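To: structure subgroup
Subject: Chain for Friday's discussion

All,

I'm putting the inputs and outputs inline so they're searchable in the archive.
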Amino acid sequence: MSITLYQNYYQLFEETTVAAGILDATNFKLEMANKSMLNLWHRPASIMGSNLLDFMPELEDQEYPELLKRVIISGKGHQEKGAMVLLDRHSKKETVYMDYSYTPISTDGRRTTAVLVVATDVCEREMTRLNRQQSKLDLRAMVMSAPVPMCIYRGPGFKLETANDLMYDLWQDTRQINLAPLQHVFHNGVPYTCTMEGITYSYTPLKTGTIAENAICVIAVRN
């Protein structure tokens, strides 16, 4: 890499809070990394000039060295959101979730001489997403095992997320629930009960943080 180009990246790194580093294309030698990247990796500044797998040997059995090779050979960048990385931090292996990108750097417009690595720690976001997924699985298990007709509608469009066999059997004998009670519960965030065609429906709002994820649990009981 040319000295001028190196200096340009150095200035850029110093001015950004985003974790960034540059790896040489020949042997993944760390040409430079800003403080944010060192903090993300939990590595000291003394690793500068070392090869990637020397200061992060835990990556050897993961996909990232191979992805770097593909970027170098193809000259095409690579990015991923919510990628799971196993890192040695705090004297133990930790699961870290990152949004990252590998961008090829070329001094002659043809051959890749280095790779710009940019990463963001998104552990909090991904753990929230995984917890929501688990909550949905738990909710579905509850619905399917319920001794009464039960279903879940999700989001402002009231998409039917899950319903047990008892609810499907009920729908064969009656018309499906109208939208008015669903809209009332969704927009007001309060439970609602009504009786239609000899069946009492109980609507319970399930708030999960975002409007798109909010849901309504519907339970039906024949009078």
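Points worth raising on Friday:
The beta strands are 19-24, 30-33, 78-89, 92-106, 112-121, 150-154, 159-163, 192-196, 199-206, 215-222.
The longest strand covers residues 92-106.

D.
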